[in-house]
Amino acid sequence: MKKISGLKCVNCGKESALAKVRYVCPECSGNLQVVYDYASIRKKLTRKALAKNLDPTIWRYLDALPIRGLKHAVPLQIGPTPLYRSRVLAADFGLKGLFIKDDGRNPSASFKDRAGAIAIARALEEGEKLITGASTGNAASSLACLASVMGLRTIIFVPQSAPVAKIAQLLVFGATVIAVEGNYDQAFDLCLQATAEYGWYNRNTGYNPFTREGKKTCSFELLEQLEWRCPDKVFVPVGDGNIISGIWKGFYEAYLLGLIDRLPKLVAVQAEKSDAIKRAHETDGVIRPVSGETIADSISVSIPRDGQAAVAALRESDGFAISVSDSEVLEAIKVLARAEGVFAEPAAAASIAGLKKAVAAGQIRPGERVVALITGNGLKDVASAMKAVGQPHRIAPKIEDLRRLIGALDRPGAPL
Question: Which among 138, 201, 270, 379 has the fewest CB atoms less than 10 Å away?
Answer without folding.
Answer: 379
